[in-house]
Amino acid sequence: MFKKVLVPVKATRGSEKAIDVACDLAAQLDAGVHILTVNIEGMEDKLTGEMMEEFVSRCRSKGIEATHSMLTARRPEDVARTIAEASNGYDIIVMGHCKYKKIYRFLHSSVAEDVIQLTSCPVLVTATDCLS
What Å distances lie between residue 45 and 10, 23, 70, 103, CA to CA? Predict the structure, then answer.
């Protein structure tokens, strides 16, 4: 059923957990993993190509076929739509979500919530405490 797993990531602990969950799921289902990051035009991203290769190696060390790519969105508001558009042809999305304090949530939108609204495939969200 789930043979192609898409994992949108950024430079957070939530993404690291999503990679681990996606690899475990893929191992159980004999599926492949594609790791995706979406950079925002004109903004420097902390997630480098070297980090993406490390994520891929993490999956491959578990015997999972893994690839990666980087896309660009024009504005921060376009990240979720870019992920949703990229999800065509995938069976499931596994993505991290940081559990922030209420004031942070009030000031920032959740890409995971937006992806759930925009995509037609199932989304598995892994939650992690990202702020102490």
Answer: 8, 24, 11, 24
